[in-house]
C-alpha cells in the first residue's frame, strides 16, 4: 500500500556543521517525515504546499521524507510506518490535511513510537451536519496529544481550535505561499479591445460556480466587450454550459477545462480581472496567484480570504450575485477609466508577501520548538485521551492506543530496531550531488 | 506553556496575513474568536404549537390502524366488500367536494386540473384495479402468510417513517409506494377478488387522497384541523379496540408519546442547544439562481 517517495535529503555530519555555521540560527537538523494522502502528480493546494515546503526545508539542510497512501485502517499501517520511521531516523512526523486517513494513522503510530508530531490543517469545516460532527471528533482524538498544529490562516486557526478543543497556544498560523517567479505579469498578452475576467477553480458547488452562472449573463448583457475565461473542470461545468447556451455567449465565455499548473500563468496574464466566487476557503492561493500576475482581484468575503490581500488589492463582496456584480462593475469602471495600478506595480507588491522561504523558516521554528518537547508516555497519553475526548471515544481510542503499543512490542520482538538497515542518505558518490546542489541553487 | 515571545503592546495585532507583525506565530490575541456567534437565528418553540404539528404524525399512525382494522373486519367476513366500496366512494366524493370548497376560497386560479380530468383519473384507476383484482388476489399465493404479514408490517412502518409530514400534499413517492405495496400484500390474503378491489380502493383513499385533503384543511381551516386529527386518533384507537384490546392500548401509548411527550422533550432540550457559527462557515446561496437557466 505505501508508496514511498524520497523527496531528497542532505544530512551528513559535514553538511550539518557547514550549514549551522552559515546560518547560526538553527541549532539542530531534523529528519522530517511528511505524511498525507495528497501528493504529486495530483494537483491541488495541499499537494503543492507539501512539495514546495519540502523543497525549501531540504535547502535548509533538513532531511524530508514523504509518505502517501490511500485506504488505510487503524493498525495495518503500523509495520510499514515503523519501518520508514526507524530506517530514516525520523525525528518529527508532519501530517497534512484532516481529510487524509493516513495522516491520522501516522500521527497515532508516531506517538506510540515516541516521535514528535506536527499537524497542518488546510481546510475549514462546519459544525452542523452529521459528517462534520464525526470528523471533528476524530480530529479531537487525533490532535489531543499532538505537539503542535499549524493552520494556514487565523480563521482556520479559530476553526481548528474549536473543532478539536485545543489550547490555542499550540496552534501556529503559517500561511501558504506562492512562487512569485512562476506568476509574473505580461500585459502584452491582454487583448486590447476587451475586458477579460478570469476564473480558475474546480467547478464544484463549494467554489460558488452557481453564483458564477448568475454573474455571467448579468454582466455580459450590460458590457458587450466583456469576456470570461474559465479554467477548471468539475460537475458544475454543466451549469456554465447551460448559461452559455441560453444566452448565446459561446464567443465570449470560454471554458478551458482542467489546467495544468504550468499553464495557469498563461491563462491568468490574458485577463484584467480575477474573480473568485468560493463559498468557503481557508486561505485561497488562487487570488494571490491572480494578484501576482497583476490582475485586479474580486472575491467573496468568506473564510480566511479577507486576511490574505491588503484592501487596495482586492475587492471583497458578499456571496450573492448582486454583490459580486456590483463589485465587478466597480472594477470594470476603474479599468475603463485607467485608474487601476499597473500590473507590474501590483506584482512587485505581492511578490514578497508570501514566499516559501518564509514559510519554511517559520515551520522550522515549529520543528525546533517541538523537538524540545516531550512525547507523552503511554500512561499519560491514555489519561489525556480519556479526559480530553469524552468517555466513549476517549476510552475507545485509549484501548486502540494500548493495542497499538502491544502490536509495536510484538514488532520490536520480531524485528528489533538494531537489526534494521539504516537508509543511506542520497548525497551521491563522495558527496558529489551535494556539491552540485550547492553550486546550482541560488535559493528557493 | 505560553507564546514564544512577549509581544510589544505598542502595535495592536491585526487579523491579516499579508503584513509582518511583531508577534510569534502562535500568538493568541484578545480578539481570538470574537466573531464566534452562538445559536444564531434559533427558533423558539411553543409547546402547544409543536403538539398541533405533531398531531399530523399521530393521525397518520391512526390512519394505518384504521386501515388494518378494516382489513381485519374484511378477513373475518364481518364487512362486505360492497359496503366498503360504496362507503369509500361516498367518502371520496364528499372529500372531493370539501377539497374543492376549501380550494375555491384561495387558490382556485392556480389549480389547472379540471373536474373532468379528475374523474378520468378516478375512472382509470377504478377500472384497472377492478380488472386486475383477480391477478392481485393470486399474486402472493406462493408466498407464505407469515412472510406476507411481515412484509406488510415492514412496509407500513416504512410508510410512516418516510411520510413527508411537513408537505404531505402530494404524499412522497417512497411512502405512497410502501403503503400501496403493503396494501396489495394484505389484500391478496382476502377471500375474494372483489374484496381485493374494495381493499385497494380503500387504501388509495386512506394513503393517497386523505393526506391531501388534510393538508388543505391544515392550511385553510386550522381551527378544524385539530378536531379532525383528534377524531381520526379516537377512531383509530376505537376501531382497533373492537378487534384487539392490546393493540388499542399500544396505539394509544404511541399516540400519547408522539403527540405529547416528544414535543415536551423537544421544547425542554432546546435549552441545551449550542450551535456555533463564524466566518469559517460555508456561505449559503439564498438567491433563486434557476432564473438564469430557465
Automatic annotation (TrEMBL), chain A:
Q: Which UniProt keywords apply?
A: Endoplasmic reticulum, Glycosyltransferase, GPI-anchor biosynthesis, Membrane, Transferase, Transmembrane, Transmembrane helix
Superkingdom to which the source organism belongs: Eukaryota
User: PIGA GPI anchor biosynthesis domain: from which residue to which, for each copy?
Assistant: 63-129
Q: What is the lineage of its organism?
A: Eukaryota, Metazoa, Chordata, Craniata, Vertebrata
- Topology of the protein relative to the lipid bilayer: Single-pass membrane protein
State the name under which the record lists this protein.
Answer: phosphatidylinositol N-acetylglucosaminyltransferase
Q: Where is this region: Disordered?
A: 1-24
Q: Which PANTHER family match?
A: N-ACETYLGLUCOSAMINYL-PHOSPHATIDYLINOSITOL BIOSYNTHETIC PROTEIN, PHOSPHATIDYLINOSITOL N-ACETYLGLUCOSAMINYLTRANSFERASE SUBUNIT A
- Isomerase listed as a keyword: no
Q: What is its EC number?
A: 2.4.1.198
Q: Give, as in the UniProt entry, the pathway in which the protein acts.
A: Glycolipid biosynthesis; glycosylphosphatidylinositol-anchor biosynthesis
Domain Glycosyl transferase family stretches: 186-335
- GO biological process: one example: GPI anchor biosynthetic process
GO molecular function annotation: phosphatidylinositol N-acetylglucosaminyltransferase activity
Under CDD domains, the record lists:
GT4_PIG-A-like
Species for this entry: Xiphophorus maculatus
Main site of residence? endoplasmic reticulum
Please give the start and end residues of each transmembrane region: 392-414
- The residue ranges flagged as biased composition, category Polar residues, are 8-20
From TrEMBL, chain B:
Q: How does it sit in the membrane?
A: Multi-pass membrane protein
Pfam families recorded: GPI2 (PF06432)
The GO annotation for biological process reads:
GPI anchor biosynthetic process
Its UniProt pathway annotation is:
Glycolipid biosynthesis; glycosylphosphatidylinositol-anchor biosynthesis
Species? Xiphophorus maculatus (Southern platyfish)
Chain ranges passing through the membrane: 193-213, 225-242, 248-267
What is its subcellular localisation?
A: Membrane
Residues in the signal sequence: none
Q: Which family does the similarity line name?
A: Belongs to the PIGC family.
* Protein known as: Phosphatidylinositol glycan anchor biosynthesis, class C
Gene Ontology annotations for the cellular component aspect, listed alphabetically: glycosylphosphatidylinositol-N-acetylglucosaminyltransferase (GPI-GnT) complex
Keyword terms: GPI-anchor biosynthesis, Membrane, Transmembrane, Transmembrane helix
Q: What is its main location?
A: membrane
Record InterPro entries: Plno_GlcNAc_GPI2 (IPR009450)
